[in-house]
Amino acid sequence: MPELPEVETVMRGLRPSLEGRRFQKVIQRRDKLRFPLPENFAQRLTGRCVVKLARRAKYVLVHLDDGMVLFFHLGMSGRMTILPRVSGAEQRPVLDPHDHVIFETDEGEEIRYCDPRRFGMMDLVAEADLLQHKAFRDIGPEPLGNGFNGPILSERLKNKKNSIKAALLDQRVVAGIGNIYACEALYLSHISPERPAGSVQGSEADLLATTIKSVLTRAIEAGGSSLRDYVQATGELGYFQHSWAVYGREGEPCRQCGEGAEAPVITRVQQSGRSTFFCPGCQR
DNA sequence: CCGCTGTCCTGCCAGC
DNA sequence: TGCTGGCAGGACAGCG
């Protein structure tokens, strides 16, 4: 499911429960998710204190007090749930079969990582080696950081022969964009997803970079407000309803094309195996 | 090196 | 109702 804004929301939601807290108990219920979990995973986390949380691309980074970093990716179906401390005879909800890892903090809160499709991953790496890890080695700039703007995007797209849609999904070009925000950013920029990536240069790259920033920023804000401090009553993080401008709107009239009697219709095509939604009228 | 395809896994939903 | 096929927001290996 999650792209950059959802991962950011999950990270911010976990902060109050994890930063400065100690892992009292860690339960690992599976050998592997997408990849095998590290050796002695639970033991290595138990007793460790969390120094800070951060995000890089679609990964949440949990910096620990022994110089290691726990990091995880939610894949397509991963979710985190925070359950408050229980006292006496109170019981927590029974575990779901897809609750793969459970963290209990010294405050008595329980954080469950549930991932039905198991496309997610978790790993443990020394902080000094983090940037060399294969998950991060080749990742492009953070779109909301200073290292991303029109000229930089333009440079990274130059000479690329694949479609601009495929290029935006390529984490080496820019980090954190997934299928939905790629569609949304191209739509709002009036750029056809089928254009060769290398043809998006100059003022179009400026516009696209600006649009990417605003679309992601607004999604993070929407997540924060609709989740009320990023945690729902159920304790679940990262899921918020959002109405997209173009994603999922196949067959609907384009809202950007004005009030003409026959506005073009949003079209769905397959690009590198993924659905792309766009307006053939206003995206050129 | 580059770009594209298939694949991992389960859940859900439309259509028959 | 029950079955089936298609689709799902990601990322990687492997191929040409």
From TrEMBL:
InterPro entries: FPG_cat (IPR012319), FPG_Glyclase (IPR020629), FPG_N (IPR035937), H2TH_FPG (IPR015886), Ribosomal_uS13-like_H2TH (IPR010979), Znf_DNA_glyclase/AP_lyase (IPR000214). PROSITE patterns: FPG_CAT, ZF_FPG_2. The active site is at P2, E3, K58, R274. Residues 2-120 form the Formamidopyrimidine-DNA glycosylase catalytic domain. Residues 245-284 form the FPG-type domain. Its EC number is 3.2.2.23, 4.2.99.18. The keyword DNA-binding applies. CDD domains: EcFpg-like_N. Keywords: DNA damage, DNA repair, DNA-binding, Glycosidase, Hydrolase, Lyase, Metal-binding, Multifunctional enzyme, Zinc, Zinc-finger. Its cofactor is Zn(2+). DNA binds at H98, R117, K160. GO terms for molecular function: class I DNA-(apurinic or apyrimidinic site) endonuclease activity; oxidized purine nucleobase lesion DNA N-glycosylase activity. Pfam families: Fapy_DNA_glyco (PF01149), H2TH (PF06831). Binds 1 zinc ion per subunit. Involved in base excision repair of DNA damaged by oxidation or by mutagenic agents. Acts as DNA glycosylase that recognizes and removes damaged bases. Has a preference for oxidized purines, such as 7,8-dihydro-8-oxoguanine (8-oxoG). Has AP (apurinic/apyrimidinic) lyase activity and introduces nicks in the DNA strand. Cleaves the DNA backbone by beta-delta elimination to generate a single-strand break at the site of the removed base with both 3'- and 5'-phosphates. HAMAP family: Fapy_DNA_glycosyl. Monomer. This is Formamidopyrimidine-DNA glycosylase. The gene is mutM.
